[in-house]
Each structure stands twice: as structure tokens, then as C-alpha cells.
Amino acid sequence: MRNRLPKFFTQKQSQVILIILLVIVGSNLFFTPKKETGGPYGTKMVGSEACRSCHANIYDTHIQTAHYRDSRPAEEQYIKGSFAEGSNFFNYNQFMSVELRKEGDRFVQVGLVGGTEMQRAFFDIVIGSGRKGQTYLFWQGNNLFQLPVSYYTETNSWCNSPGFPNVFKFNRPIPLNCLECHATFAKSNGINGDKVEYDKGSIVFGIDCERCHGGGADHVSWHLEHKDDKIGRYIVNTAKMERQVRVDGCSLCHSGFRKAIQPPFSFQFGDTLAKFSTGSPISNKADTLDVHGNQYGLMAASKCYIKSATMDCSSCHNVHRNEYNEPKLYSARCMNCHGDKDAVHCSFKPTAGLVLEDNCIDCHMPVLSSNKIRLDVNGKQAQLPDRIRTHYISIYKNRSKS
Ligand code: HEC
Ligand code: HEC
Ligand code: HEC
Ligand code: HEC
Ligand code: HEC
Ligand code: HEC
Ligand code: HEC
Q: DSSP letter string over 55-99?
């Protein structure tokens, strides 16, 4: 059998085949396909539109969340920075700058030295809802890179992409773990040097239902066929699992940068995170916070968490809703535990006019400056720190002087 196959080919054809094979093998020396996306994650995904017919309430509020809006194609309505003349520059120094331009219906960053164009790239993907900031990515073939200029919400201005040198660069590749935290799914076909060979069509933007509930195909088809079944089948809901598993789902993205043991996108809600990666320690040291803050590590170091068996992220967050900037609502969630007669109450004696219940959080979970991430912003001498809400729930005496 083995020897029969070549007989179908003439000698000349065999030589051509040999050359083709050599080319394929040869190119593999430079491009080594390596399994990069692991596990079952990404299969059986149907998209959140498919959840809408039965979970309309959740769907309608979910699409307003920072999660859902966290990554998107670079369309005009999603880019927060200004392209208006006068504010469409980021200057590194007297000679070097990046101009932000609209060209047709696309947007481009142009690197200039002494006013002469040196390099350019289009905005293709927006990362960040713009709650705090945005950064932008561009495609070159199947590789993704970060654009040199980002957007900082606090000053409503363009800024130097965090961690970039003080010159424009268009060659910083985007690793898969970046999208593991900032998208629902992305598949890689391997690594080429330091660049990921993305399967472009596989990318599912935003942090959508199935990022937290697993692929929904079986669930949807079951319930379409069994309209009377009131028990949700074939879908992950960590609410019913032990606490460590409940917080592990969120910790995948909310415990700072982690050291991977398994490839990106292997982990699914319901898994034990420690089997997939190791992370920052549980610590009350809020000064090490950066934009990729360790909410899990800080919460887990707090007395509330240690002394109560039930506290998890959902004690305070309803992830299906955008509840940003609602201190009263959050304070009511503190009172779910601290309002009971036999619970420990606030011992602070407020000055007249101050109602503790209006805002527990600015005293006990204040917004602090990060020592890690500093941003260069146009027109500012000093670098600005990023500001994060600490999740180390504690007594901050200097916060009570109001
Ligand atoms: C044809 C109707 C239907 C569709 C479509 C549907 N679901 Fe459900 N789902 C149900 C029903 C019925 C339940 C059980 C009652 C409930 O909890 O609302 C349920 C429950 C759930 C639960 C809770 C399960 C549990 O164990 O507590 C989750 C999570 C869920 N669905 C997610 C999704 C997601 C994500 C999608 C889209 C991919 C989706 N559903 C699409 C009908 C549907
Ligand atoms: C796949 C990664 C990922 C997972 C899993 C994830 N998050 Fe997030 N989360 C993010 C990113 C990224 C942002 C920043 C979104 C933005 O503003 O662009 C964010 C933002 C948030 C915010 C701030 C925005 C707001 O709505 O107030 C909260 C709160 C939050 N996440 C809570 C949670 C909780 C609770 C869980 C677990 C149930 C969770 N997240 C799971 C990545 C994730
Ligand atoms: C371990 C998960 C993780 C990784 C990896 C990660 N991020 Fe994030 N990123 C987050 C989370 C979570 C937030 C929101 C944190 C908060 O608000 O405290 C965030 C916030 C951001 C924001 C600000 C968005 C906003 O408005 O809040 C930008 C921009 C951003 N990340 C870009 C990137 C880029 C670019 C990469 C890859 C080079 C990356 N991140 C890698 C989890 C991650
Ligand atoms: C960031 C993660 C995340 C995303 C995104 C998300 N969910 Fe959930 N979902 C959860 C968690 C965590 C719970 C359990 C909450 C708890 O502990 O009570 C939950 C619970 C549910 C439930 C059970 C009933 C309830 O209200 O608690 C349903 C149904 C559900 N989700 C559907 C959806 C649908 C549909 C979407 C998209 C439109 C979605 N979820 C998006 C994390 C998420
Ligand atoms: C799941 C229940 C639960 C929730 C929700 C909760 N706590 Fe607690 N908290 C506790 C418990 C239990 C303790 C420990 C009380 C004791 O000393 O025995 C505690 C302790 C504290 C302490 C004392 C900390 C210290 O270091 O001495 C403060 C302050 C506090 N909580 C504030 C808050 C605030 C503010 C919120 C809302 C943002 C909140 N808690 C939400 C359960 C909770
Ligand atoms: C005791 C209540 C409480 C718990 C528990 C809690 N959070 Fe928060 N979280 C808050 C409050 C309050 C805010 C501020 C909301 C605002 O500014 O509107 C917040 C904000 C956030 C933000 C935005 C941070 C920023 O700097 O803007 C993220 C991300 C977040 N929480 C994630 C989580 C995750 C993940 C968990 C579980 C590991 C968690 N939270 C547990 C109360 C809590
Ligand atoms: C204006 C700031 C401020 C506000 C608002 C505030 N607290 Fe406090 N809280 C403090 C200070 C300061 C202390 C420590 C008082 C002392 O022992 O001197 C404290 C103490 C506590 C303690 C520890 C009590 C003990 O005996 O160990 C808890 C629990 C607590 N607060 C919960 C809350 C909750 C829940 C809210 C919202 C309803 C709240 N606090 C609102 C400043 C505040």
C-alpha cells in the first residue's frame, strides 16, 4: 500500500510535489505552529443575541455594561479621543509627534518627525469601554499590534500608551492573553517569533454572556424544544458552586497579571483557576495596584471576606447591569450584612448633615492612586497616576474628616 501512492504521479510531478513539501517544511522552520488556544472554550458559542428571546431583561442591561463594551471594532462612535483640529496631536517632544486623523471612514495614527510622515497605521480595534481609558490595535496580516497613542478619560485627551518608550513605535505585538481578558474569544493558529498568528474571523468582541456562562448552544436548543422546563440546563451558573470557584471566574481577569500554566482561553467559569494560572498574592497593599488591579487579592485580604463565609464579588456587583457611580446602591449592599441587628455597625460618629448610608464606600473603599501606571498626557509636566477603587475594605482614618 505504502508504495502505491507515488505511482499515480509522473517523475516530474513527484519532483514538483517534493519541492512543495520542502517549501512547507522549510517555512515551518520560521513559523512553528504551536497549540495556543486550549480546551473546549469557544466551541458551542451562539452569541448573546441568541439569549435575548428568553432573558430579555438581562440582555437589555448587559449590553450597557463596561464588560460588553470592553472591546469593539474601531468605529467612530466607539473611539473617545478627538480628531478635531487642535486636539488631534500627541507630542513627544519638539520634533516627534503623532497626528490622529480621519481618512474617509477610517482613523489613522501618523508618526511625524519634524513634520514629515515616518510611519502610520489604521485603528482597527478599540480596547476599553472608555470608563478609564482606551487603547487601539491594528492588523498587519494576521498579527495584531498596539498603536502608540491611547486615550485617557480623566483628562479627556490622547496619551502615550502605557509602558511605551517616549517615542512612537508601531511594532508592539498583542499577545493572546490580552484578548483573553478583553474579549469573549480569540483563536490563534500559532506563534511566529513574538507575534501571534490570529484566526481573524474567530474574534468575539466584548465580554459577553458566554465568557461567563460557557457556550450556550445546547442550552438554547434544549429550551427552545422544552418550553415548559423551568430549570436551566446545559449552562454554567457559578452561583451554585463553592465560594472559591465563584470568585475564580472573576479572578481570571481581576487578580492582576497571572502566570499561565495552560494556554489562554482554556479556563472556563466553573473551573479551579489555580490549575490554569498562578496570580498575585492576596494582599492589602493597594499601592501596587495598576489599571489591571487585583480586586480579588484585595477583597480576600479584607475582614469582611475573611469573617463571612458567603462574601463574593456578587455580594456587591450585579454584573448584568451598569452600576458604575452609584454609591448609594453599593452602600445598600454593605447594609445587607452590616444592617442586621447583631452585625458590626459603623462606629464613626458623623458630623451633622453626613448620612453614613449615602456613601460607605468612599470612606471604606476609597479611590487611590496607582504607583505602577503613570501616563504622559499632552500639556502636563508631570505624569498622572491611574486611579483605582481599592477592594481592601478597611478603616481609612484620613477619609473621615468631611
Ligand atoms: C428558549 C429559551 C432560552 C434561551 C434562548 C436561553 N435560555 Fe437561559 N434559561 C432558560 C430557562 C427556561 C432557564 C431556567 C429559568 C431561569 O433561570 O430563568 C434558563 C436559565 C439560565 C441560566 C441559569 C442556570 C442555572 O443553573 O441557574 C443561565 C446562566 C442562562 N440561562 C444563560 C443563558 C445564556 C447565556 C443564553 C444565551 C446563550 C440563554 N440562557 C438562552 C431559557 C433560555
Ligand atoms: C474575561 C475577563 C473578565 C472576566 C471573566 C470578568 N471581568 Fe470584569 N472587567 C473586565 C474588564 C476588561 C473590565 C474593564 C471594562 C472596560 O471598562 O473596558 C472589567 C470591568 C469590571 C467592572 C467595572 C465596570 C463596572 O461595571 O462597574 C466590574 C465591577 C467588574 N468588571 C466585575 C466583574 C465580576 C464581578 C466578574 C465575575 C462575575 C467579572 N468582572 C468577570 C474583565 C473581566
Ligand atoms: C489579566 C487580565 C488582563 C490582561 C492580560 C489585560 N487586561 Fe487590560 N484590563 C483588565 C481589567 C480587569 C481592566 C479593568 C480594571 C479596573 O477597572 O480596575 C482592564 C483595563 C484596561 C484598559 C482600560 C479600560 C477601561 O476603561 O477601564 C485598557 C485600555 C486595557 N486594559 C488594555 C489592555 C491591553 C492593551 C492589554 C494587553 C497588552 C491588556 N489590557 C491586558 C484585564 C486585563
Ligand atoms: C462577567 C460575567 C457574566 C456575564 C458577562 C454574564 N453573566 Fe449571567 N451571571 C453571572 C454570574 C456571576 C451569575 C450569578 C450571580 C449570583 O451569584 O447571583 C449570573 C447569573 C445569571 C443567570 C441566573 C439568574 C440570575 O439573574 O442570577 C442568568 C439567567 C444569566 N446569568 C444570564 C446571562 C445572560 C443572558 C447574559 C448575557 C446577556 C449574561 N448572563 C452575562 C456572570 C455573568
Ligand atoms: C457578605 C457580608 C458583608 C458585606 C456585603 C460587607 N461586609 Fe463588611 N464585614 C463583614 C464582616 C462579617 C466583618 C467582620 C466583623 C467583625 O469584626 O466581626 C466586616 C467588617 C467590616 C469592617 C471592619 C474592617 C476592619 O478592618 O476592622 C468595615 C470597615 C466594613 N466591614 C465595611 C464594609 C463596607 C463599607 C461594605 C460595603 C462596601 C461591607 N463592609 C460589606 C461582612 C460584610
Ligand atoms: C464589598 C463590596 C464589593 C465587593 C465584595 C466587590 N466589589 Fe468591586 N466594587 C465595589 C464598589 C463600591 C466599587 C466602586 C463602584 C463605583 O465607583 O461606581 C467597585 C468597583 C469595582 C471595579 C471597578 C474598579 C475601578 O477602579 O473603577 C471592578 C473592576 C470591580 N469592582 C471588580 C470586583 C471583583 C472582580 C470583585 C470580586 C473579586 C469585587 N469587585 C468585589 C464593591 C465591591
Ligand atoms: C465619613 C466616613 C465614613 C462613612 C461614610 C462610613 N464610615 Fe464606617 N467607619 C469610619 C471610620 C473612621 C471608622 C473607625 C471609627 C473609629 O473606630 O474611630 C469606621 C468604622 C466602621 C466599621 C468598624 C466598626 C467596628 O466596631 O469595628 C464598620 C463595620 C463600618 N465602619 C461600616 C460602615 C458602613 C457599612 C458604612 C455605610 C453605611 C460606613 N461605615 C460609613 C468612617 C466612615
A: -HHHHHHHTTSTTTTSEEE--GGG--S--STTTSEEESSSSEEEE
Confidence (pLDDT) at 376:
62
Task: Determine, yes or no, domain membership for 85.
Answer: no
Give the predicted TM-score (pTM) of the model: 0.92
The answer to whether 247 and 298 have CB atoms below 8 angstroms apart is no
**Structural domain count, the chain:** 2
The reported pLDDT for the residue numbered 384 is 65
- Which regions of the chain are under pLDDT 70? 1-42, 286-292, 370-385, 400-402
Q: Whose CA is nearest to atom 39 of ligand 3?
A: 178
Give the residue, out of 314, 363, 391, 393, with the most ligand 6 atoms within 8 A of its beta carbon, to mutate for a pocket test.
391
Return d(Cα 143, Cα 176) in angstroms, integer.
11
The closest alpha carbon to 254, from 307, 205, 316, 202, belongs to 316
Kindly state whether residue 263 falls inside one of the protein's structural domains. Answer: no
User: Whole domain around residue 14: which residue ranges?
Assistant: 1-30
Most ligand 4 atoms within 8 A of CB, residue of 65, 234, 320 to mutate: 320
User: What is the per-residue pLDDT for 284?
Assistant: 81
Give 194-233 pLDDT, tens digit per residue.
999 999 999 999 999 999 999 999 999 999 999 999 999 9
pLDDT of residue 89: 95
Classify residue 290: in a domain, yes or no. yes
pLDDT for position 127: 98
Q: What is the pLDDT of residue 243?
A: 97
pLDDT for position 15: 45
Residue 334 vs residues 305, 311, 342, 395, 402: alpha-carbon distances, Å? 12, 11, 14, 14, 20
Ligand 1: residues within 6 Å at CB? 46, 50-51, 53-55, 209-210, 213, 216, 219-220, 223-224, 230-232, 235, 237
Q: In ligand 7, which atom is closest to the CA atom of 399?
A: 2
User: Does the beta carbon of 81 sit less than 6 angstroms from any atom of ligand 3?
Assistant: no
Tell how far the Cα of 67 is from the centroid of ligand 2, in angstroms.
5
CA distance 53 to 55: 6
